[in-house]
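pinned: reference chain
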Amino acid sequence: MSASGDFKVNPLVKDALDSGKPIVALESTIITHGMPYPQNLSMAREVEEIVRTNGSVPATIGLLKGSIHVGLQNEELEFLATSKNLVKVSRRDFPYVLSQGLSGGTTVAGTMIVAHKVRIPVFVTGGIGGVHRGGEKTLDISADLTELGRTPVAVISAGVKSILDIGRTLEYMETQGVCVATYGESREFPAFFSHQSGFQAPYQVQNEEDAAKLIARSLTLQLGSGVLIAVPCPKDQATSGQLIEEAIQQALKEAWEKGITGKELTPFLLQRVNELSSGESLNSNIALIKNNARVGSRIAVALNKIQRAQGRRDGSPQKGNASAVPRPVVIGGINVDFIAKAREPALVVGGQTNPSTIRQSFGGVGRNLADCLSRLGKSPFLISVMGKDEHSESVLHYCKHMDMGGVLRLEGHNTATYCAVITGSGELTLGLGDMDIHQQITEQYVSKFKENLCLAPLICIDGNVPVSTIQNICHIAREHRLAVCYEPTDVDKASKPFFSDSWRALTWISPNLRELRAIVRTLGHPVPADLPTKLEDVVETAMALVCPLLQELHCVVVTLGQDGVLVCGQNVGGTVSLHPGTCNKTTGSELCATHYPAIPIPAEEIVNVSGAGDSLLAGIIAGLLAGEDTDNCIRMGLLSASLSVRSHEPVSPEINASRVNLAQVKTQSWLETKTWKLPQP
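pinned: its structure tokens
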């Protein structure tokens, strides 16, 4: 099968392959043959979302009209979920299905083949096939087992179905040279719905790191065979699992009495078990697959880190330094946040206790930016510092979907903590922070990652970084002509690059109006004593303040909270240019400012605004890195921000590349921009 002729790789998956992000392959026969519509479609979408949430890029594999698709769009998933007479595609079926231009779902074996050919080492499924009962006479043995013996892909499943001969299945995999290990606290080999099969697996891995080490060693040895990681069903499914097991045994008995064998056996058993369990088997099946997706995605992330450290992918040497690939670099703070939200719209001050809801979450401007960029598929490299304490352990656990390889942990220091007090309407009224450790983001430490900086398409610094470090980064940026974005963080930190000429090396800044005034004051320009609140006056004030900055900066993005954003810079083709390569500061081009309103959100849906600005900036950066024009970049930022204000977390876990992309932003009807000319600075 030719990758150029027969394969169509989704752009998000291709980007992940090219940039070395963790990817999880997903089969499609569960969509085409395993579940009825609409459960099959909703399950497929939810499983992909779980993979994304846990740090990997999902790649559902299927055949559509004679082509192998790696990573399916929503409409392609719907086609497979609703079409009739689709083919179950295993190894033997590829030549015929492709030559006839047919469509179908890939089995475990079929998915393994495709995953290996496009270099995806981890594949998640529900359960694999095996040796059928009586298989020693009928030779009814699933091709999944043979494929595991000759295709080096790690399969994450809930073991094999109870309708099979589990003992002979394990024996057959041993003959095929398949390394089999259970996941978790027991070596008991799971039987899909049940934890207990009565058989022990050869090996056991305790967690995703152990599983990743096993898979990495198998790939490095180039044995040519696969690995099976058997994940027991979740504990909350154990009771229903026993009920379903009883239904399976009853269905097997009925099939024996009716003489049902061969290819009719499995469909009969699945239908009868669903009937006997009153639909519980379908619900448990979905729960199992979701659990496998969660575990499999985390294993893929852990494996990806090992492969980067080894400088290898799929057991073959990589050129150059695997840790220094061209990807955005974020340098800034990590905080453990305690968010106290009052139940009333206004706080009562003077020592009284305000009834509130208090939550722990994970923030810091740098972490938030890296979090949102990671969820949008841009794989940033985060450089930061934490203490070596219980808070940092919590941060690392929560941030498994991010590359934390550039985060230093220091003994004897406290991880930064922040307490935000928010009104019932979602407005931040007071912030308290223990941020001393941010001073340990030193120029010496950051300089260790100079190769990452020099390769980065964009460097983003937040105001928590010490002045000397910012100056050093600006020096590197000027020397190597790098694009640098500065996020001021707050009024007290906004002016750090502007104490010297370092700011002239910056490309963009993203202040709010108060931070913008502080920056302009630092540069010695006159500023208003009081700031307006009416939108028309806010825009006029912001436009006056940005003019002296645009002598050197490419663009200033002024964040206006619920009023949206004002983008100021050079006019290229009737709009402000965000891309520095599209214009030249020395040409005297016309300057302009464009106002973009925020997405309207009902007050009752606003939960937390603490990470909205960071999500806005990350969405804009994601658009820039994807080569989008200014309008689409700003829309992506506003869409990301609208999701985060509805979340208890600073960056919404709902943010992903499917919900924030070009197709989504083009459907928005809220965007009515207005542009003004600016006087030449």
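why pinned: The first strand starts at residue 7 and ends at 9. Residues 312-324, 582-587 have pLDDT under 50 and may be disordered.
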